[in-house]
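Appendix C. Worked example: Autoinducer 2 import system permease protein LsrD
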Amino acid sequence: MSGISSNEKKSKHKGMLNWNLFLIVVILFEFLIFGAANQKFLNISSMFRSMNDFVPIGIIGIFVTLVMITGGIDIQAGSIVGLTSIIIGVAWQDWGMNIWAAVVLAIVIAILCGTLTGFFIAYCGVQAMVATLGGSFLYAGLALMVSTLSDTPSYMGITNFPDAFRNITKFKIGTISPGPVLVFVIIAVIMGIVLHKTKYGRKIFLVGVNQNAGEFSGINTKRVILSTYVLSAVGAAIAGIVLTSYYNVAKSDLGSTFTMNIITIVVLGGTLSTGGKGNVFGTVLATIIIGLIKFGLPLCFGINSQYLDAPIGILLVVVLLGRALMVHPAFINYRAKLKNKRQKAA
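Step 2, the predicted output written as structure tokens:
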């Protein structure tokens, strides 16, 4: 596994640290600006309620980070969220299954969805964008089909889940309901260790840097790529479980609007869309940034929530343009000249 030199590793590590520090500064500015505009922004209970609505997207983003480090992309995760949710509801209410058995069934089906898409990408050579776009339509259709098996109209959703299931996310510490955020933190820690401290994580990076080099190093790169889509589907299933528990409703279209937000937090977090670079901590910081934007803009500046996709989209475009500029030969040469001038002046 010598496809990445030590100098390249040090350079990428330094680049990630610098980017993460930049994201931390952005978060501090958000607190400063929104807090100055409206003191209610600093209310911990309100902030947690808002973040609880958004962290399921961050959960998916953590797993999609692995996919994008390999050079792939996953735009089907939102559909798997809805499929997971409606399977839990129908299996519990209409098929008479125990709620935890319904949860296990939903996770197994999500794994099968991720395996199917990952197989087409890794072993059949289908482009990730095409395969996951097709998967998005397929799994959204399956979710809608499953919803027709219920006596409850699909537009109403299945509600009144057992307290044990709802308590996953609804338990309180004082006035705060930290359930979804706590799940997010636990997953971030686990996946951070997996990605940055294990052989499997190093294989993911090497596949993203140079898949051929990975093959020559004895890595089954196709299996690694397949596994990232399976994990992404698991992440979507976890998000579906969290949302279903938190809102106490199972719907087939839950998660249908997540795609742009997922890709934005992964890219904003420092993961290259071309693969080979990324980190879980960056994705976590990006999740906080977007979550605070969605909380702060309506509260502090009266912006209607239905227009919040506009600033998120602008942010995604700016980050992508900035990344393209930083790797442009002219910009690289300009930076090299500045560095040489500084060295001569010293």
